[in-house]
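This part of the workshop introduces the protein records we will be handling. An example says more than a description, so a record of this kind follows.
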Amino acid sequence: MTIASALRTALITALVVAVTGAAGWAGYRWFRESLKQPERDVPVTQVRRGDVVFTVNATGALQGGNSRMLVAPMTGSNQLTITELRKPGELVAEGDVVAAFDTTEEAFKLREAEADLAEAEQQVIQARNESVAKAEELNYELIKARSDVRLAELECRRNELKSRIEAQQNDLTLSDARERLARLERDFPARRAAAEAAINIQDAARQKAGMQAETARRNMEMMVLRAPAGGYVNVEQNTNSNFIFTGMQFPLFQLGDQVRAGMAVAQIPDMNQWEASAAIAEQDRGHLAEGQPAAITVVAMPAQPFEGRIVNLGGTTGPPWNRRFECRLALSTGESRLRPGMSVRIVITTETMRDVLWLPAQALQESDGRAYVYVREGTGFVERDVKLVRRSESQVVVEGLDEHARVALAVPGKEAAAPGRKDGAAGVVAK
C-alpha cells in the first residue's frame, strides 16, 4: 500500500467517526430534551369593573300546565290491577277512557247484591200480603166481638122473663163479650204496628241490598278513569314498590301493574297552559324564588323565544354528589306547534350587581375556607386573599383587588414559586 492510499483510508475513517459522534451527540441531546416537561405560559386575565348579571341556566322539557290528576278509586280493595291504559303522550278528548282496572271482584259483589235485592223485594211483598191478611183478621174479630156484645145485651133485656140462673148466665156472657171487645180494641193498634214493623224490617233489608248493589255499580264506574278534559296522557311512575332508595328511577305504569287505592295513575295537562320543567343543581336553590322571570327557548323552535315565570320549586333529591331540585316555570303564551316533551333551554335572571369588580370563575381558588387569586407582580405571581361576594358558573364578584390587576387563570407550577416570602403566600415566577 502506498502512502497516498494510507492517508486516504485514515481520512475516510476519521470522517466516519466524526459523523457518527455528531449523530450520537444529537441523539443524546434529543433524548434529554424529551425527558423535560414542556414549559407553558400561565394564562392571565384582568380584573374588570362593571355590571354583572347573574343567571341560572338549565335544560328541561315542556309539559301541559294545570294538570288534572287521575287516581285509583277508593273501592276498599288494597290492590287494583290495570287492565286498560293509554300510551304516554297520546291525545284524548273529554270523556275518553284513559285507564281501567279489573272489576271481577266488584262484578261478583254486584251479582250478589242484585240477588239479595230480588229476594228482599219478594220478602217485602210477602210481608205486605201477610199484613193485609192480619188486618182483615183483626177487623173480623172486632166485628164479631161487637156482634157478640150486641147479642148478649139483647139477651140480658129478657132477664125479667127468665129464671134467676138464666139471667145470671146472660149477665156473665155480656160481661165476657164486653171484656173481649175491650181487649181487642186495646190490642188492635199494637197488632197493626207489629204487622207494619214486619213490613219495615223486610223493606230495610231491601234498601240495604239496593245500596250494596248501587255501591258495587258505582265502584265499577269509578274503576274506569276518563279524561276530564281534552289533552294528552301523562302516565305516572309506578312507585308501588317495597324497595325504595334515594335517587331511584321508577318505571311508568303499564298493563297488569298493581296499584294501591288513591295512587296517581295518569294526569291530563291543559295544552292551553304550558309549563317547562327542569332539574337544577342544589347550589342555585337559594338564588331562585317563585315569580322570577325567565327566558325560555324551545330547541325545535329557536327563532321564537318565550317568556316565563317560576311557579314552583320542588324538593331536593338525588345522590350527595348530584343533588338537584325540580323547577317548574309557566309560559306566558302558548303556540299551536308546541308538544309535550319538547326540549327547552332556560335562562333565569336572578340578580344584577352594579359597578362591581369581577373575574372569570376559574381565576378564583378556594381552600380551607379561604378565597384567593394569583396576582401578576413583575415576572411572577403572588398569592393574594380576596373576599368572595357572589359567584356564578362563569363569573365571580370579589373585593380586595385593584381594577385592571392581572390575575392567573390557572394555578402556577409550584416549582416556579418565588422564595423568601414570610406571610405564607407563595410567589410564582411566570414561565
Q: What stands out?
A: The domain at 104-222 is CATH 1.10.287.620 (Helix Hairpins). The chain has two domains: 38-68+271-431, 104-222.
